[in-house]
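This follows on from our talk about sequence and fold. Please put the record directly below this note.
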Amino acid sequence: MRSLHLASWEFRGMVYVTSGSWVLSCRMSEGDSVGDSIHGKPSVVYRFFTRLGQVYQSWLDKSTPYTAVRWVVTLGLSFVYMIRVYLLQGWYIVTYALGIYHLNLFIAFLSPKVDPSLMEDSDDGPSLPTKQNEEFRPFIRRLPEFKFWHAATKGILVAMVCTFFDAFNVPVFWPILVMYFIMLFCITMKRQIKHMIKYRYIPFTHGKRRYKGKEDAGKTFAS
């Protein structure tokens, strides 16, 4: 009688048993993420950064209504950064890069979300009013005010951190950078003002004409 070869396969969690030998499998299930540990629970580092992001977003949400306070803090950080650069007498290339970054943010803040030059031959979607008697439409920016403030503040903080590392202190003749930045600022703003005059829009809604509904006289009519 031919002997039977007994081979038993049994799956117990992550252990396979076959003919008395143990084979361990360390594969991840489909539902596990990169930040999960072997036991399926998020790691300590993953939970720490997740919680930190939630707290940071909560503070951003709370600061949204306080526009003036936010910009005062940002201007204060800018002043502190300029004093630090002046005292250290270095990191001019970092300051120049910060100025170019803020200029790009400012141009996006002044620009409409939909470029009028791309909507000249198209009737799709709302457009900016070009006549005085047209209906009032609020100016929708390409870069909203809150995102502008957030990006500008982060740029200042990053530049501040860079001043603590000598690797970013590239020797350069700073008057050339100042002259080049002033020239670039004038050219960019001139082009932006021409664009505003050509398509007749103002990047601010303050002071524009607003329409109000008729006041309710409080009278009722019997049917």
